Amino acid sequence: MQINFCTPQFFFNISQKFPFIVYDFRENQNGYLKNSIHITNLDNIDTVADIQKHFQYPEQISERQKLEKLFNNRKRNYNFFVPFDTSDMFSLIFKHKIKSEGSQTSDQFCIPIKEVISLSQEITKITNKNNMFQRKNRAQTMILQQIDDQIVEDASQQNLFQQGNKQTIISSRRLLELHETSISSGPKIKYRSVSQPQILDYGDECFYSNSEIFDTMFKAYQVFQKDKIRQIYILLDPVQIIFANYPFLNYSIVRNRGFLDKTFPNEIIEKKLYLGNGEHAQDTEMLIDILGITHVVNATVEIQNYSNQLKYLKVEIYDEPQVYIKQYFDQVYQFIENAFQENGKVFIHCAQGKSRSACFTVMYLMRKNDWSFEQAYDFVRECREIVCINDGFINQLID
Q1: Which letter, b or e, does each residue of 91-121 get, where b requires 16 or more Cβ atoms within 10 Å of its Cβ?
Q2: Which helix (H) or strand (E) holds 393?
Q3: Of 68, 80, 94, 324, which sits 20 to 30 A from 6 (CA to CA)?
Q4: Would the keyword Hydrolase be found if you checked this record's keyword annotation (predicted)?
């Protein structure tokens, strides 16, 4: 039996096209993802019905009805399990080891259940409550970030990651401050990057550790598998990390802001490269104010450039096998590279986001990562399932 894990990027891309439901096992909810059911106090569960007794639905009747319908159709939908709110040493080490077991080019990981159980037990032993690292880090809610302030560089902590490069570990005291994010043209929205765990008591037992929450969630996951539910994924990243990278996914804050029913381009490279269609291209408010896009590759004849706030490269080609698209590869590649060097974000589109724009996206990944066509094509299709490059373009990519 295999256990499926995924990254926030996978969740983001799936949520744009397919029906899904989120089972949230966090001890307290400081913000939540769309389509979330909060589940707490699980004990002696043998069936899905046992788990359902612990569902905590939103107060809004319409939201509850929507979630009940999604749950009834769970065998046909994507099901995401959320165990972690913020990071502690258990979740940090667990995420690193799961990713090292899986494919380095994928945003989903399939691990044998025996390995997951063994890994969880091993890390729990390292970070048990009598261990100074776990107690210190959970009390402060340590979190992995690319920030240069309040860095903890204790050598023994770094060794837990078993990596050659030092990691930056930041205290939540820095991240608990309120941030402002402009979304669309509406008012400023404030959200918390990280929340402290709930205090239950004093002393050694004052916090639930992420290992305990993971064990509870994992039991529920296995019950779902016995019910023959196939599309089940465990989100590796804590919810607050997801909100830091995708603030518009914090449903508790932005559900009344008017853009939650929008569809977004699919993310190919995290927070850098996006692939989509002509409707996405026209929604410049979403591109600029929500995703932070700065550069656009417009691979069409029929669609105009919509904004003077964006830098465009317009490649006027038709989606026909006989078109010599290869002549534009160098120009498009350099345009994307220049954008990244300027710390920009790139959106590539054609009319449907299936062939012309996908061809340029695959080309970029092949050149940048020294990937084969098959490797790059599979990666892009994993991010955006409707991708279907015409045979003439494929032959030019392979040559």
Answers
A1: bbbbbbbbeeebeeeebbbebeeeebeebbe
A2: helix 391-398
A3: 68
A4: yes
How many residues in total does the chain contain? 399
Burial bucket for residue 197 (CB in 10 Å: 0-12, 13-18, 19+): buried
- DSSP state letter for 291: I
Beta strands 143-144 and 169-170 are antiparallel
Angle at alpha carbon of residue 251, lines to 27 and 290, rounded to 5°: 130
Give the separation between CA 181 and CA 192, rounded to whole angstroms: 11
Computed over every residue of the chain, the mean pLDDT equals: 79
Q: Tokens 């994993």: give the residue.
A: 382
* Catalytic-role residue among 350, 359, 383, 388: 350
What would the pLDDT profile of 324-372 be if each residue is shown by its tens digit?
Answer: 999 999 999 999 999 999 999 999 999 999 999 999 999 999 999 999 9
- Who contacts 370 (Cβ-Cβ below 8 Å, separation ≥6)? none
Q: Determine the Cα–Cα distance for residues 73 and 78; give it in Å rounded to an integer.
A: 10
- Whole-number Å distance between alpha carbons of 116 and 57: 30
Helix, strand, coil percentages (3-state) for the chain, rounded to 5, are 40, 15, 40
8 A C-beta contact, residue 11 and residue 70: no
350 is catalytic: yes
How far apart are the two ends of the chain, measured CA to CA in Å?
Answer: 40
Distance CA 182, CA 290 (A): 8
Distance CA 21, CA 5 (A): 15
Burial 144-177 (b: 16+ CB within 10 A, else e): bbeeeeeeeeeeebbebbeeeeebebbbbeebee
Q: How far is CA 213 from the centre of its chain?
A: 20
pTM of the prediction? Answer: 0.75
